[in-house]
Amino acid sequence: MAAKQSLLCLFGGKSTEYKVSLMSASHVIPALDPQKYDVHLVGITENGKWYAYSGSLDAIADDTWHTHPQWLRRAVLSASFGDKTLYVESDTKNTFTPISIDVAVPVLHGANGEDGTVQGLLSLSGIPYVGPHCTASAVAMDKMFTRLILSHYNIPQVKTAYLFRSQIENDPETALDTAERVDAYPLFVKPANAGSSIGVSKASNREELRIALRTAASFDTKVLVEECIFGKEIECAVLGNENPTPSVPGEINPGSDFYDYDTKYITDTSEGFIPARIPKETAEQVQMYAKKIFEVLGCKGLSRVDFFVEDGSGRIIFNEINTLPGFTQISMYPKLWNYMGKPAQLLLDELIAYAYKANADV
Ligand SMILES: Nc1ncnc2c1ncn2[C@@H]1O[C@H](COP(=O)(O)OP(=O)(O)O)[C@@H](O)[C@H]1O
Ligand SMILES: [Mg+2]
After folding, report:
1. Ligand with minimal distance to 202 CA
2. What is the pLDDT, as a whole number, of residue 91?
3. I need a labelling partner for 72 at 20 to 30 A (CA). Which of 110, 167, 314, 318 fits?
């Protein structure tokens, strides 16, 4: 039998989506085939500290993993090119033991994990890893940069104004005037870099807009103000490197005012439909756009590309791309591939194979 691959699985992270990562990791870790992989878990605390973790899965799910010192050893990933080594503090705490790593699976969402930072470190170390590399991750995390690039490729998008924290703080009335020129109320306001709907608001008048701008600006220096689209939320999973494969599109019906954090992870009102309840030609066009967006941003391995299909007109409108999409029980990415005949274990095997291939192609 071939030797097992030494796999580094990262979870947690210094991000507003730390808890979402714990939910994703609780589903990814048990789906990694123990016959193929020697899994080395490294948990990153909300403060950004790295620990090799030898405890239970339950303690990851309930966020107590970092409270058990007997399961934690400080861990450092070497940035020395080609080292491919994780150094883990020994039991006596005087020395660090090297662990050779073949491949990494970053189960991280948002800042300091999905935004090119960890990707840069893994690239420096020479470790192949699942998901897009540094530049694509950083660009896709930033909704402003993503939109500016995609407008060059004529991808249909929502009408958007870009505002900066300094304008919002120093000249709020002008910022509000600029925002109001986007469209009639309601308007959507969001930070350029965020996820899981954190910092996203729907404003129905100038006073709500004022609060929404301040909220979004507390998460990022750049803020997007968008026309509100009334329609279906459609998500398409993409898998591969060059010439990637789009899944059938899925549909989310939040069952609330919009798909906010609570609707996503706390209440149970949202409903998913696989495949999406849209005409066949619309589904094919969504797949075509999803693949094109993945390619022009230079993604690798996986991404989930999200759209609206407007009521009435049937217009397809790009909303955002997630390069390390959620892998929780309710997440569309694993569900869509499961529907396409790839259950989580097989999907992870393929993602890992794409990681080696993308690394070899660099
Ligand atoms: N322009 C818009 N029109 C209508 N709904 C929107 C708009 N922008 C965001 N939303 C709603 O807010 C949710 C979160 O916004 P999104 O841009 O996807 O941010 P995040 O990266 O946090 O998921 C969407 O799933 C959708 O329900
Ligand atoms: Mg979203």
Report:
1. 1
2. 84
3. 110
How many residues belong to the chain? 362
Residue whose CA lies nearest to ligand 1 atom number 21: 195
Query: How many domains is the chain partitioned into structurally?
Result: 3
Enter the pTM of the model.
0.96
Task: Please name which ligand lies nearest the alpha carbon of 319.
Answer: 1
Residue 302, domain CATH: 3.30.470.20
For residue 36, report the distance from its CA to the centre of ligand 2, in Å. Answer: 33
Q: Whose CA is nearest to atom 9 of ligand 1?
A: 188
Give me the DSSP letters along 95-114.
SEEEEE-SEEEEEE-STTTT
Instruction: Indicate which atom in ligand 1 lies nearest the CA of residue 254.
Output: 27
Residue minimizing CA distance to atom 16 of ligand 1? 197
pLDDT for 1 equals 57
How many Å lie between the centroid of ligand 2 and the Cα of residue 78?
A: 33
Task: Sheet with 160-164: list strands edge to edge.
Answer: 160-164, 222-227, 187-191, 201-203
Return the pLDDT at 220: 95
CA distance 246 to 165: 36
Q: Let me know if residue 263 belongs to a domain.
A: yes
The atom of ligand 1 lying closest to the CA of 319 is 17
Q: List pLDDT tens digits, range 277-303.
A: 999 999 999 999 999 999 999 999 999
Distance 204 CA to ligand 1 centre (A): 15
Q: Does residue 46 lie in a domain region?
A: yes
The answer as to whether 134 is a domain residue is: no
Please report, for the chain, how many H helices and E strands are present, in that order.
Answer: 12, 17
**What was the pLDDT predicted at 282?**
98
**In the predicted structure, residue 355 carries a pLDDT above the cut 60:** yes
Question: Which residues contact ligand 1 via a Cβ below 6 A?
Answer: 158, 188, 190, 194-197, 200, 226, 228-229, 233, 254, 258-259, 306, 319-320
Taking the C-alpha atoms of residue 110 and residue 112, their distance in angstroms, rounded to an integer, is 7
